[in-house]
Amino acid sequence: MREQTIRTAIVGASGYTGAELLRLVANHPNIELVAATGDSMAGRRVGDLYPSLHTAYPDLVFTEFDADALSGLDLVFLGLPHAASMELAPQIVGEVGCVVDLSAAYRLSDASHYPTFYGFEHTQPELLAEAVFGLPELHRDLLTGARLVATPGCHVTAATLALRPLVEAGLVENTGVIVNNVTGITGAGRTPTETNVFTNIDSNVVAYGLLHHRHTPEIEQEVGAQVLFTPHLVPMSRGILATCYATPAADCSAERLVGAMRTFYDGEPFVSVLDGPPATKSVLGSNAAHVWATLDERTGRVITMCSIDNLTKGASGGALQAANVALGLDETAGLTMVGVAP
Amino acid sequence: MREQTIRTAIVGASGYTGAELLRLVANHPNIELVAATGDSMAGRRVGDLYPSLHTAYPDLVFTEFDADALSGLDLVFLGLPHAASMELAPQIVGEVGCVVDLSAAYRLSDASHYPTFYGFEHTQPELLAEAVFGLPELHRDLLTGARLVATPGCHVTAATLALRPLVEAGLVENTGVIVNNVTGITGAGRTPTETNVFTNIDSNVVAYGLLHHRHTPEIEQEVGAQVLFTPHLVPMSRGILATCYATPAADCSAERLVGAMRTFYDGEPFVSVLDGPPATKSVLGSNAAHVWATLDERTGRVITMCSIDNLTKGASGGALQAANVALGLDETAGLTMVGVAP
Amino acid sequence: MREQTIRTAIVGASGYTGAELLRLVANHPNIELVAATGDSMAGRRVGDLYPSLHTAYPDLVFTEFDADALSGLDLVFLGLPHAASMELAPQIVGEVGCVVDLSAAYRLSDASHYPTFYGFEHTQPELLAEAVFGLPELHRDLLTGARLVATPGCHVTAATLALRPLVEAGLVENTGVIVNNVTGITGAGRTPTETNVFTNIDSNVVAYGLLHHRHTPEIEQEVGAQVLFTPHLVPMSRGILATCYATPAADCSAERLVGAMRTFYDGEPFVSVLDGPPATKSVLGSNAAHVWATLDERTGRVITMCSIDNLTKGASGGALQAANVALGLDETAGLTMVGVAP
Amino acid sequence: MREQTIRTAIVGASGYTGAELLRLVANHPNIELVAATGDSMAGRRVGDLYPSLHTAYPDLVFTEFDADALSGLDLVFLGLPHAASMELAPQIVGEVGCVVDLSAAYRLSDASHYPTFYGFEHTQPELLAEAVFGLPELHRDLLTGARLVATPGCHVTAATLALRPLVEAGLVENTGVIVNNVTGITGAGRTPTETNVFTNIDSNVVAYGLLHHRHTPEIEQEVGAQVLFTPHLVPMSRGILATCYATPAADCSAERLVGAMRTFYDGEPFVSVLDGPPATKSVLGSNAAHVWATLDERTGRVITMCSIDNLTKGASGGALQAANVALGLDETAGLTMVGVAP
């Protein structure tokens, strides 16, 4: 592990994932933040837009994006719209130590999904091929030294951590998987809409993005199985619980399911295999993931679950964890905060 | 429809379903409430325990249970523990016009489920055979004139309304059904526990009662299919959303699914077939049920959903609706209130 | 009480107060709704914008405003912006039985407050003088037969019901009054903003509109005292709790405070004087107001409180109650629903 | 600042303040936790009772209290009932480096308040005289080297931080002060009761402990003024907002109020003087306090506000901050986490 200063910029820092990165890097022992850009908020103090960041960043001001200023930095996070990220990346990859993209621009190895799910053609096939999917629990080796990291979607992290160990161990079939998620509203972003107003979330649960949610191909890619994905909004700001159903393979048992999880996550700093169903509040504000699985022998169905904080492990925390791996730092640096409960 | 006065008692009125019945019968044009018993609260004013009932019942006091006082009444609701209800029912059925039991004591036609799911042997097989399952949308004819009505469990109402029309129309297979529900905490009752304290529900989602929840055999009985049932607690007081997955039969299509629902619920006063996913807040405080279904052709899976208020349509409202049918009253009497939103 | 049909229109029905009126008039025995206008929503089904209204109004569609169509109606509610209401009223007052304005356009008897607090000159001094302040508990006699009713602001209803009986009885001084309110977010209206997004309300409390909130002159007018008013947003959709502090007059005592309240509200259908602090959930979804007062002898301060649902008693319910009085109907018609709790 | 290892025990660690201490000390660079006692939970894993602590303390088990095991430790936190703390303290003060008591046992310099507000006579007058009130912003010098620290009550910290600078600067009178607080439910503790069940807190606001709340004499002691204190429960887990009203002294102005605050808190690591009303969510999960004050010239009243997280700055975070000062450590050690928002 190198003792070093990581000169870092956050591009598109004024959204929720940007604010979450700011929360985390404030306690990172190596990171020196040199810029937080946010064109629409340029000139505004970070602590005025996010008063929770006031104490940590009393003087930090959002600046306008300036590509030249990034050159030579050790680490650049991109918190931009998907297409903007796709276009910016080739300008800075190689010019900086590591680019960690929080958009979906470099997540899908099959470029043909982009027109279908994101509405644009992918114009950077080489960079797409180079990008490493930023889930250290699956791709730690590839991440080490990576120049471009694609941070997973929040639902993808939850579903993959619940399902991948079981698929890989051959304990469940790779068709007929159902991923039934609930999530807090922060995943919908900062812009006020009819969806994220308080009155629409309070005392309310509703499914959204049915059949064709953008995270579907990403989950299928990482899990290695065909998946029907149904997310629901529930009345909370943060948190995802993935409740997944799969068909057991021949030698499946409840013990083997949990055993496969324990083997897969042995030594992982952030994933805990529980003895029962995980809860979202247990990981609120932390980079932890709680997983558990069981088998219903009567109906012949595996249930596997994962809870994360969608903004932390599901976005900015996962991004920082991947950055730590990419740069050869302590993987937990800046991520040791404990979840806020009760 | 008869213009008449229905002399009514609520036995076990101090719990949440009792309070909800009191809320509803306050606006019933025919019901005259003659007693609200609640042994542990006897002597206490209803409006002191439930200040929301203060205006409607300024002077009503919970009384101790007295079987003799029930004799000759037109309608008796039982809001008692399951075993207590099982034992009390034979004493009053036939002595009063109609007994509507909100417990599970007379819901399961297969008595062998009682030791497994409720921990007691059912000692009243004849009454169990006579009891009518109180879901008017399925059993309206049987309910008319019934002496004993068994009010469905809250999750059962939601799951059955989502699934039954599709099973009955032969559009889905009757095995491999998954019922993935979310619910507010009122279903857990009034007694303070580590489960229903605010800090355990706020910002939290967790599954409970996995594999062996008591509502499983009841759902299977009413839906007519084998079901894996997984309920989750979410941060709200009221509401259930059932998200159900089933295997499509040969001729299934999204249009036929919705068509089967529209046919099944044609003329129903409380069930609306929406054009998209239902939300729990849309039915909060009302007796409405919102349903919708679709087909994912890619993965070969039907999704069907239902939202209800667990205390209203899912318990006391459904009980009152069934009582109206049993007694030949307007089925909507006392149930015309509109949901409270936003 | 006349048995009659009240032909009614709601102008500006697509906002929250319009939706709440629609919820209530659906159960009014006399009201026949002939139009619900909402220019920005014209052509859209009411039940699509507000699914909670789907069952009660399966076919109702928002229409464009048409002044001619109002002529001859018995009752017209105005749910428009303040200045628009001010301008529309003279066109329809006298042409219809009763106009009930939910804006502030005709609330303030001192027209000089309008430029200061609302940013426009009041151009209708005669109509302003004629308008009756729509709080039946204070102005029932004037309301009877009124052609133009000005519905109170939500905070005003709460503060006035807490304070007026004590001021009128001479038990508190008419200077130095503090009104410290908390409120749910529905008072901020339907349009999504940075204020009413879920993430800004969840787990958050903040004061707003300090020193110069628009409801200040209105509270002072109705209470008859100088008032410092400080509202706070708390994490809920509906409800106001007014906690008011006043200086006791010479003969004040806790008993006399409660006694003055009981006298003032004797026979009132919607106001209950409790034996302790009122709660907002006890009146959720109902037209009830719960009040209580006490004296702290040690510090020489009266505390008086009132809880209401800001959309019901604090807006549309209060408006309907005032309309009932104005038109000589049963004052409780359409308002007998019980609060939704737990 | 000494680089050292602080051997530490938490006595009564299973309650909410104990769990919050565990959350914080997990990131303290100097603290080595040697015991977490909790008699009723003895033998139970910390991570089972508080899953949020699972990752930080995979193997830690609550143990039974053993006074001998404390001897020679550097730091002992007491999270016990008031009377138990009063009795235990004399056994360990002097035997360990510093005792930080989270109960009220050693907060009130006037022992005569204990029978009135806590129901017991104080039997340790000498230790009561020695104990230092653990608010570094007021008593930093006394805290350095203190053997016994009394952690302030949560409402006391909020009210004192809002009011003390203004009283000390002579800008407000020291009579007629009103402290109107709202708070999340965690302050009520872990035991399930009719007060802290979800249904009683959700969508609800109610005042409690009126006129005689136990924090009243403590606020008066620290603020140096006569205070009427009225707390309210609002629907959230954590957070206090103190909204205080005071009478301005002769030379008071809005500018001088804010100026006095800026002077008083100059250099303070955790207190920020904002430019407008503080919000509770801005400090959620952090040790920050946000304050602001203004003057209403029209009614002649000062408004001063403070927001804190009641479990962090208002209890365990404040306790750790005081311990850091007492032991000569970096005052911010273990307390650098940033608030969790949005």
TrEMBL record, chains A, B, C, D:
Its main location: cytoplasm. Its EC number is 1.2.1.38. It is found in: Cytoplasm. Pathway: Amino-acid biosynthesis; L-arginine biosynthesis; N(2)-acetyl-L-ornithine from L-glutamate: step 3/4. It comes from the Bacteria. The keyword Transmembrane does not apply. One of its GO terms (biological process) is L-arginine biosynthetic process. InterPro entries: AGPR (IPR050085), AGPR_dimerisation_dom (IPR058924), AGPR_type-1 (IPR000706), NAD(P)-bd_dom_sf (IPR036291), Semialdehyde_DH_NAD-bd (IPR000534). GO terms for molecular function: N-acetyl-gamma-glutamyl-phosphate reductase activity; NAD binding; NADP+ binding. It catalyses: N-acetyl-L-glutamate 5-semialdehyde + phosphate + NADP(+) = N-acetyl-L-glutamyl 5-phosphate + NADPH + H(+). SMART domains: Semialdhyde_dh (SM00859). The keyword Cytoplasm applies. CDD domains: AGPR_1_C, AGPR_1_N. The active site is at 154. Residues 7-146 form the Semialdehyde dehydrogenase NAD-binding domain. SUPFAM superfamilies: Glyceraldehyde-3-phosphate dehydrogenase-like, C-terminal domain, NAD(P)-binding Rossmann-fold domains. GO terms for cellular component: cytoplasm. It is an enzyme of class 1 (oxidoreductase). Pfam families: Semialdhyde_dh, Semialdhyde_dhC_1. Keywords: Amino-acid biosynthesis, Arginine biosynthesis, Cytoplasm, NADP, Oxidoreductase. NCBIfam families: argC (TIGR01850). Catalyzes the NADPH-dependent reduction of N-acetyl-5-glutamyl phosphate to yield N-acetyl-L-glutamate 5-semialdehyde. Belongs to the NAGSA dehydrogenase family. Type 1 subfamily. This is N-acetyl-gamma-glutamyl-phosphate reductase. It comes from Ilumatobacter coccineus (strain NBRC 103263 / KCTC 29153 / YM16-304). The lineage of its organism: Bacteria, Bacillati, Actinomycetota, Acidimicrobiia, Acidimicrobiales. The gene is argC.
